[in-house]
């Protein structure tokens, strides 16, 4: 699991901080599913790979918890489809 991605349970989102800026993925744990509702990176982080690094951390967290990912967010869905090593997590 990426130690840089943290689970902010109060806000129901995973967060990655880079240079004082945040990329985050809002989620809901529903049974054995991890529903990813939205992924967003602060404007200065866009195009830097921060959202991809965040999603890798989210996927590792899901795997460590034995969960499948249900991506409601287009970015999250596309990221999992592009990274075949995590395709087994796609619900």
Automatic annotation (TrEMBL):
Keywords: Acyltransferase, Transferase. Its EC number is 2.3.1.-. It is an enzyme of class 2 (transferase). Gene3D superfamilies: 3.40.630.30. It comes from the Bacteria. The keyword RNA-binding does not apply. One of its GO terms (molecular function) is acyltransferase activity. Transmembrane segments: none annotated. Residues 6-91 form the N-acetyltransferase domain. PANTHER family: BSR4717 PROTEIN, PROTEIN NATD1. This is GNAT family N-acetyltransferase. It comes from Microvirga arabica.
């Amino acid at each position: 699991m990426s130690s840089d991605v943290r689970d902010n349970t109060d806000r129901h989102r995973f967060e990655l901080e880079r240079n004082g800026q945040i990329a985050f993925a809002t989620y809901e744990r529903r049974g054995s599913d991890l529903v990813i509702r939205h992924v967003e990176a602060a404007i200065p982080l866009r195009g830097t790979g921060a959202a991809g690094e965040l999603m890798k951390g989210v996927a590792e967290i899901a795997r460590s918890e034995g969960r499948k990912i249900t991506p409601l967010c287009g970015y999250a869905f596309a990221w999992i489809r592009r990274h075949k090593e995590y395709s087994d997590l796609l619900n």
